[in-house]
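Figure 2 data, in text form.
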Amino acid sequence: MKSKYPVLCGSILICELVVVYFAVLTTFGLSVKSAQTLTLAQLLIGASVIAVLAIVAVILLPRRIGERRPGVILGWVVQVLLLASGFVLTSMFFVAALFIA
């Protein structure tokens, strides 16, 4: 029997990808005004790492009930990285809390 769990987890991870890239643009816009040390390339590399991990997590999610695959654990790693991005842009703590809940 197919599980609805991968659809739910996958949709959350894909929504996080969109939010992460909007956060990169916001952080870059704010850092230009405040002259912070992060460049656009560094922000894009960080966002790309989170994006690749999220896509791999979606691919590795279990498809059937009772099946064990590493996608769920990798999804939690993506959640932790999203939470850690709050140290770059403080409002990401709130966004990460929304996705984790």
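Caption note: The radius of gyration is 15 Å.
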